[in-house]
Design goal:
This protein has 13 helices and no strands. It has three domains: about 60 residues, 434 Repressor (Amino-terminal Domain), CATH 1.10.260; about 70 residues, lambda repressor-like DNA-binding domains (434 Repressor (Amino-terminal Domain)), CATH 1.10.260; about 55 residues, no CATH class.
């Protein structure tokens, strides 16, 4: 989560879009005074905030709370290298190479080397980078993250899917809850368990 206030995040979104306040107000069918009010007080309707996020290309969740990525990932993320995704995510979060290096006890050049693809961070650092950038390790490595959507698909079709046992659906839900509660270092282990269980259910 970032340390900016909602007023600052609204201002960042508008300034980054290179739209004037007058243009923002025109497109959102409001007044320049209202836009100034959002920046000054942080008071903005949820529906208007969503429209502002769409207009500026920012995530509404980030503007509202400071959590998650500033902007949605690129559509061609699956075609990028791990280093390119690391660089893209760092820039979206607004971190410098030195700031990321300080968090991991690495030099600025080491972070740059990961982003160029000259070297790759070990699994522990990769897991912590995923946490810092609010994405999964799988996303960093492949540009996709299908595990949760696959889990949801299994749960949504639970009644139609023959299960390993009457408790299998419950176990899937329990694993998903545990995945969010366990120590971050164990998240890859929990993800592996979830994937194996889902795969086994799919065979039945």
């Amino acid at each position: 989560m970032t340390t900016e206030t909602i007023q600052e995040r609204i201002s960042i979104a508008i300034e980054s879009s290179r739209l004037s306040k007058a243009e923002v107000s025109r497109r959102l069918q409001t007044t320049p005074q209202a836009v100034n009010g959002w920046i000054k007080t942080g008071t903005i309707k949820k529906s208007t905030l969503v429209q502002l996020a769409k207009l500026t290309g920012f995530n509404s969740e980030w503007i509202a709370t400071g959590e998650g990525l500033q902007k949605p990932p690129l559509d061609n993320d699956a075609h990028q290298s791990t280093g390119q995704r690391l660089k893209h995510l760092r820039e979206l979060k607004g971190f410098t190479l030195q700031q990321v290096g300080n968090r991991f006890g690495c030099t600025r050049s080491a972070i740059s080397s990961w982003e160029r693809g000259d070297t790759r961070p070990d699994l522990d650092k990769l897991a912590n980078l995923a946490r810092l950038y609010s994405v999964s390790v799988n996303y960093l490595l492949t540009g996709t993250d299908d595990r949760k959507s696959e889990s949801k698909k299994v749960l949504d079709n639970e009644e139609k899917t023959p299960l390993l046992s009457p408790n299998a659906g419950y176990l899937v839900k329990l694993i998903e809850e545990a995945d969010g509660l366990c120590a971050f270092e164990d998240s890859m282990f929990m993800g592996a368990i979830s994937t194996l269980l889902i795969r086994e259910i799919g065979r039945k």
